[in-house]
Design goal:
The structure holds two protein chains of two kinds. Chain A is built from no helices and nine strands. Chain A is mainly beta. In chain A, the strands form two sheets. Chain A has a five-stranded mixed beta sheet with strand order 1-9-8-3-4, with no helix packed on it. The termini of chain A are far apart. Chain B is an all-beta fold. Chain B has strands at 5-7, 10-13, 19-24, 31-38, 42-50, 53-57, 64-68, 74-78, 87-97, 100-105, 109-113. In chain B, a hairpin with a 2-residue loop joins strand 9 (87-97) and strand 10. Chain B is globular and about 45 Å long. The N and C termini of chain B lie far apart (31 Å). The chains are: A mainly beta, B mainly beta. The interface between A and B is medium-sized, with 23 and 27 residues.
Chain lengths: 113, 114
């Protein structure tokens, strides 16, 4: 599986935008970029995924670099509830249902009131 | 609420014992994944089932086994338990969306081996 690199931790203020970076320089053409987050004492939660184009949903936006070697998860207005570990994961789109999701160490996001 | 149900929420047992963790996927989801999360190892993929058949294996010990039943619920059996097996065990089911799978995780079973 291709590897991702994320900062260990980041801080944000409530109601401000947060940009969480992820580097994946060895990404292959069929790898999808997934983001999950894990709130304290809960299971991981799907946030967003994309292949080449930027993606938006009700939780966040995903900005993918043109060469696909990096991406940024954008939380438009951070709330205290967004404090969590955010995982950036690559998943091969050609692997079908046999492809496992491999979690790294993620970025611990702290949100200050 | 993800729609994935795991029971029990907490389990305390002794070394050498055997336990069974249960997972009910979201209605209609055919895939079930099992993950282990410990403080020193992070989230580790154990095994995946799809419609009753094993599809992928990760770092699952030989003392651990799993199965998925015809009603699609899954059980993870852990035997000859050791202190190091103490961890949070998550299961997840999945749905395909825009070319790739997204997983929905349960709230986990906290296993403590004393």
């Amino acid at each position: 599986d291709a590897k991702t690199t994320q900062p260990n931790s980041m801080e944000s203020n409530e109601e401000e935008p947060v940009h969480l970076p992820c580097n994946h320089s060895t990404i292959s053409g069929t790898d999808y970029i997934h983001w999950y987050r894990q709130l304290p004492s809960q299971g991981p939660e799907y946030v967003i995924h994309g292949l080449t184009s930027n993606v938006n949903n009700r939780m966040a936006s995903l900005a993918i670099a043109e060469d696909r070697k990096s991406s940024t998860l954008i939380l438009h207005r951070a709330t205290l509830r967004d404090a969590a570990v955010y995982y950036c994961i690559l998943r091969d789109g050609m692997g079908g249902a046999t492809n496992k999701l491999i979690f790294g160490t993620g970025t611990l996001l702290a949100v200050q009131p | 609420d993800s729609g994935v149900t795991q029971t029990p929420k907490h389990l305390i047992t002794a070394t050498g014992q055997r336990v069974t963790l249960r997972c009910s996927p979201r209605s209609g989801d055919l895939s079930v994944y099992w993950y282990q999360q410990s403080l020193d190892q992070g989230l580790q993929f154990l095994i995946q089932y799809y419609n009753g058949e094993e599809r992928a294996k990760g770092n699952i010990l030989e003392r651990f086994s799993a199965q998925q039943f015809p009603d699609l619920h899954s059980e993870l059996n852990l035997s000859s338990l050791e202190l190091g097996d103490s961890a949070l065990y998550f299961c997840a089911s999945s749905v395909w969306d825009r070319g790739n799978e997204k997983l929905f995780f349960g709230s986990g079973t906290q296993l403590s081996v004393l």
